[in-house]
Amino acid sequence: MIISEGGAMSGVGAIHISEIEPTLSALEKVLGIDLKNNALGSVGKKEFSGDIDVALQIDADKIPEFMERLKKTPEVLDIAKTGVIMTKVKIVGYDPEKQTTKPRTGYVQIDFMPGDPEWMKTYYHSPTDKESKYKGVFRNLMIASIAGVYDRQDADEKLDDGRPLESKRWMFSPTNGLVRVIRTPVAKKSGEGYTKKNNNKKLQDGIKNPEEIAKALGLDSAKDLNSFESLLTAINKNYSSELAKTIKQNFIANSTVQDIGVPSELKVTETLADKHLSRIKTLLGNLT
Fold first, then answer.
1. Is the alpha carbon torsion for 217, 148, 83, 261 positive or negative?
2. Strand bridging mode 107-114 / 153-154
3. What is the mean pLDDT of residues 35-46?
4. Which of 126, 173, 221, 272 sees the fewest Cβ atoms within 10 Å?
5. Residue 108: enclosing H or E segment and its boundaries?
6. Are the beta carbons of 265 and 248 closer than 8 angstroms?
7. Is the pTM higher than 0.90?
8. 3-class secondary-structure state, position 58
9. Which of 3.30.460.10, 3.90.550.10, 1.10.290.10, 3.40.50.300 is the CATH number of 2-123?
């Protein structure tokens, strides 16, 4: 067995939804841990998955011992350790007739992600293809955009870069849930001015229950958190037009959204009146 450091596993490919259950069941038997009920994201919701993410409830000091178990497991063909434990396993019941645009090799990558399984299933939730056109990351970025401005209390005094000297606000964290914090800019060591960094002081333990998260953010229920589309509908319904506009602008400005592409629902479309005005301006310009 080759133990590599970082990057994706070599020789792995997509897995069909019909192959997920037998593949995880086989690994469950040899490892003696629940994998199927702790699968994360879009696993089992889409016809093909690029890999399988599984939440692993384990103490940090037990991870080396778990790694040793994986090394001794014949079904685990390769291991890589980064922020997660990546493994390469053979797909049970592999059907080469089932093909997709993603490579299919008969092997799949299974990533073990240490953490609280229940919270991770909430944070890494991904809607089905019928519920959303977008990846789960868009859903999380929209929740983070809401958390950044909803019920936010900024001090009147501002820095030159526009940051308030103190801000009481929500943060949506992959490890701590929805957390209420006091954010302050970090002062320079010289004592003159501030750095670009911020310090966040927790005011309470993070909220991890979906219903309580929705309530804290002024939404109707956990159903509003299901997808980018359900959140967009909830924003337009529950918030003022000004607040909704700010949330959407912050979401669009996010670098990940810019890289992947702004959802069509938020793209500014040119109205017929705008087109006529643009045409008139062009004609007038040609006459001068």
1. positive
2. unpaired
3. 93
4. 272
5. strand 107-114
6. no
7. no
8. coil
9. 3.30.460.10
